[in-house]
Amino acid sequence: MGQRHQAYIVARVVPHGSTDGKAHYRSLGGWHHQWCYGSLPLLAADRFFALIKNPVNAAIIREELETAQGKYGRRGQKPDTHFPCHYALFLLACAFNIDLDKNYIQDGPLESYLLPATMGCWDGDNNDGLTILDITNPLKPYYAFVMGSETDADLGDEPCIAEDYLRAYYPDLGSNEGNERKKAGDKAKLELAAKFDSIPFLTEDMLAEAWPEEFGASKSSKRRRPAERKSVPKTIQETPVVGT
């Protein structure tokens, strides 16, 4: 039983043996949650962003990524490792496993829910999709959600923005119908989704660098769920620099 969801962190890393020094996206590992759907992945991702933007945490993540440069092959190539960035993965686990506002902690040992960087993003037992978070620059993360196979939505298995993921579970969100409790809940959910409007979006081409079998032109036909429409991210307004 469960509404299973996996969250992964990715980053652009120069692969082992590179002759041009070009960085490519790769998986850094992930976290399995047995009950994570609706607004819960958005809340966890928001907590993760707060954690990685902490100056001390950001410095450690940068050091881990620097250590990984040129060290590991691209997906399916050697040398490889299960967990290239231990601390970043620990922060992901904290964000998805712990909700201090609601005094909630997911039961079970940490090692039972960790997912190695070598696995395909759909290789876990999944009902309610994926959260994928880019930590190349901890102060400017990227994100994407992907619908699960049991989610009633028209976006297939292509990446989608936070509001589209949320509306797959709450299609009448913001309709101004229902009692005051529902209206307050809708308002809170829409405010949560709006937090992601200023965060850059991970496109399918970006994700295809990390998992070519699951995204992009070379995606396996067995994994393809056709999309009736594409998720369109909001235009991000650059913050002007004061004094220029």
Task: Summarize the structure in words.
- The structure is a single chain.
- This protein is α+β, with helices and mostly antiparallel strands and 244 residues long.
- The protein has one domain.
- It is 29% helix and 15% strand.
- The protein has helices at residues 40-53, 55-68, 86-97, 162-169, 180-194, 204-210; strands at 5-13, 24-33, 98-99, 104-105, 114-115, 130-134, 142-146, 159-160.
- The strands form 2 sheets. The chain has a 6-stranded mixed beta sheet, sandwiched between helices.
- Strand 6 and strand 7 (142-146) form a beta hairpin.
- The longest helix is centred in the C-terminal third of the chain and has 15 residues, at 180-194.
- The protein is globular.
- It starts with a strand and ends in a 34-residue tail after the last helix.
- Residues 214-244 are annotated as: Disordered.
Number of strands: 8
Domain count: 1
| Estimated radius of gyration | 18 Å
The outline comes out as: globular
Proportion in helices: 25-40%
- Assembly type of the chains comes to single chain
* Main sheet: strand order: 5-2-1-6-7-8
Alpha-carbon distance between the two ends? 56 Å
Tally of helical runs: 6
Query: What structural class results from the helix and strand content?
Result: alpha+beta
Main β-sheet, in a few words?
6 strands, mixed
Beta-strand share of residues:
15-25%
Order of secondary-structure elements: EEHHHEEEEEEHHH
How much is the average pLDDT?
A: 89
Uncertain stretches: 240-244
